[in-house]
């Protein structure tokens, strides 16, 4: 099933990884939210746990190895087209994760990936939900 105009909501994960007072963010390379900076992640594949999906997605998007922990935030992402049809509908589960190894290299559907300090958030075009999650969950704000 494609992500665009799905028949049912799709489950996705994000991994909040903090290292040396910086959070891992990616600049999205595809819709939805193309061009915006966000918590890295993606769709859960059939048979994957949330943790397995987060670890795979972060490896594909950033080249990093992480250890995903427990879910800490869940939200809906629904984007409608001009005719009010549901173009995208994700139920996103964000997990805290620990950095294990690797150097950041954007891959998969990320234009760019990097460690971002809280003071740099205002310089980037950051997804609004990402800002809310970082503030509410880990107190990471600009």
Summary, kept brief:
The chain has 142 residues and is α+β, with helices and mostly antiparallel strands.
3D structure, described in words:
With 142 residues, this protein is of the alpha+beta class. 17% of the residues lie in helices and 44% in strands. The chain contains 2 helices and 7 strands. It has helices at 50-62, 128-138; strands spanning 10-19, 22-28, 37-38, 41-43, 65-80, 86-101, 110-117. Strands 1, 2, 3, 4, 5, 6 and 7 form a 7-stranded mixed beta sheet that branches. 30% of the residues are buried. The model has no long low-confidence stretch (mean pLDDT 93).
Main sheet makeup: 7 strands, mixed
- Oligomeric status: single chain
- State the helical fraction: 10-25%
Query: Which radius of gyration do the C-alpha atoms yield?
Result: 14 Å
Number of E-type strands: 7
Shape: globular
Task: Give the secondary structure arrangement, pairings included.
Elements: E1 10-19, E2 22-28, E3 37-38, E4 41-43, H1 50-62, E5 65-80, E6 86-101, E7 110-117, H2 128-138
What would the keywords be for this entry?
single chain; 142 residues; alpha+beta; seven-stranded mixed sheet
